[in-house]
Automatic annotation (TrEMBL):
SMART domains the UniProt entry points to: Lactamase_B
Annotated localization: Cytoplasm
Enzyme class: hydrolase
Annotated ranges, domain Metallo-beta-lactamase: 15-224
The species this protein was found in: Methanotorris formicicus Mc-S-70
Name assigned to this protein: Ribonuclease J
InterPro entries according to UniProt: Metallo-B-lactamas (IPR001279), RibonucZ/Hydroxyglut_hydro (IPR036866), RMMBL (IPR011108), RNase_J (IPR004613), RNase_J_2 (IPR042173), RNase_J_arc (IPR030879), RNase_J_b_CASP (IPR055132)
Cofactor(s) the record lists: Zn(2+)
Length: 448
């Protein structure tokens, strides 16, 4: 028996996730993501034109050269959801493997867009759709099951690889949301069944494990938004909300509140148009009638011109730029680079937490300061995370009852916090909960 887990990326950072599992020479890769804060420090670089080896050196994509030392053949590349830290390196690495890319419909549509915008490599791996709740044979010995999860992007799954020795569960990323605004609640029954049948190893995210308690449902974010938007005297004023473009559930809530306010929801921004357009096209979401979206900067400016002319009190704008990113719609609006003029008592709602790194903090500070100088009323806090908190993880650990656990999706602080939690549940570091660094491999033949 040969069974090994190779930690390729995402074990020393939040970003560039990639893990390989080798079962008797048949390899399955989970995720191929980028690290966004490393992209940001190299501004003016067009990643689409860059070679993978340069990007590996810059720490932007996973260093998959470790795969050269792994004996076996890659049979599938499996994607759990469409966030860029999980799919963003597909265009740079997937062509090196003669294997299909398997994902849910929304994830694969996003992958197609990534491939279309790639200028350096020609990615021709077949794209194979697998829906949540379905199982697919990869080889006579291996099958892949997608179990419905909830996260901050639609169509997210847990991936269970069934092997002759038991299952390997890849749980990156998830929260347990019993009142999701888009899609259904997680498939708890499938998770518990998996645990009963025997899981050799669970690879779990650890991004929010050091937060006590349970991550609130998306319905709470919808209520916080209602509180900010319906509970404030914004009559006759401009109202702008900014959030993650891929957070379709959040955007749906905002558009529905706009209708309650008798305002037309307008989605503005290139990525807003991409993520929301695809979600609507494939039937994941239905925005209220009359919702409009614009992605191209000139189309955005012309829409803003019309809005300014017709009276901004008739509209609710949902825009990109919640981190203060230069060039995003909100920053352009705040610096008077669009035909929309902010005025005293206009309302801007940030429905996203700042991503904790100094670049983001500085950009977001500048944006908020600019808005306040213009007399804009700034609202923050209408947000809930898409990642499981400590007590969610505890439930997961108990249900899955894995023989071994590998925490991932975070630096040492986070994976160590997860390890502490696993120890509370009876695991022991180095025996059955394992801390891996990028490039390290854990072989189970010695342990089991
Ligand atoms: Zn994610």
């Amino acid at each position: 028996m040969q069974l090994e887990v190779i930690a390729i990326g995402g074990y020393e950072e939040v970003g560039r996730n990639m893990t390989a599992v080798n079962v008797d020479g048949e390899i399955v890769i989970f995720d191929m993501g980028i690290r966004l804060d490393r992209v940001m420090i190299h501004e003016d670089t067009d990643i689409s034109k860059m070679h993978s080896l340069n990007l590996i050196e810059m720490g932007v994509i996973p260093n998959d050269t470790v795969m050269k030392h792994v004996e076996g053949e890659v049979k599938a590349i499996v994607l759990t959801h469409g966030h860029l830290d999980h799919i963003g390196a597909i265009t740079k690495l997937a062509h090196r493997y003669n294997a299909p890319i398997i994902g849910t419909p929304y994830t694969l549509e996003l992958v197609k867009r990534e491939i279309l915008s790639e200028k350096k490599f020609d990615v021709r791996n077949p794209l194979v759709t697998l829906n949540p709740g379905e199982t697919k044979d990869l080889t006579p010995n291996l099958s892949l099951e997608f179990i419905r999860a909830t996260h901050s992007i639609p169509d997210s799954v847990f991936a269970a690889l069934h092997t002759p020795y038991g299952a390997i569960l890849y749980a990156n990323d998830f929260k347990f949301d019993n009142f999701p605004v888009v899609g259904e609640r997680p498939d708890y029954r499938a998770l518990k069944r998996l645990g009963k049948n025997g899981v050799i190893c669970m690879i779990s995210e650890s991004t929010r494990v050091d937060h006590e308690g349970k991550t609130p449902s998306e319905i709470i974010a919808a209520n916080l938004l209602k509180n900010d938007l319906l509970g404030t005297d914004n009559e006759g004023k401009g109202v702008v909300v900014t959030t993650f473009s891929s957070h379709i559930a959040r955007i749906k809530s905002i558009t529905e509140i706009a209708v309650k306010m008798d305002r037309i929801p307008i989605l503005l921004g290139r990525s807003m148009m991409k993520y929301c357009g695809i979600a609507e096209d494939i039937g994941i979401v239905e925005f209220p009638e009359g919702t409009r979206m614009y992605g191209d900067p000139s189309a955005i400016d012309s829409a803003l011109r019309t809005i300014a002319k017709e009276g901004k009190e008739n509209y609710l704008l949902i825009v990109t730029g919640h981190q203060g990113e230069e060039g995003a719609v909100l920053s352009r609006m705040a610096t008077n680079k669009t035909p929309y003029q902010f005025e005293k008592h206009d309302q801007v709602v940030f429905s996203a937490d700042p991503i904790p790194n100094p670049i983001n903090a500085a950009q977001r500070y500048m944006l908020e300061s600019r808005l306040k100088l213009l007399g804009v009323r700034v609202f923050k806090g209408a947000h809930v995370s898409g990642h499981a908190a400590k007590e969610d993880h505890r439930d997961m650990i108990r249900w899955i009852n894995a023989e071994h656990i590998i925490p991932s999706h975070g630096d040492f602080n986070l994976t160590a916090s997860y390890t502490k939690l696993a120890e509370e549940e009876g695991y022991r570091l180095g025996e059955d909960v394992h801390l891996l660094r990028n490039g390290q491999c854990l072989s189970f033949e010695r342990i089991i």
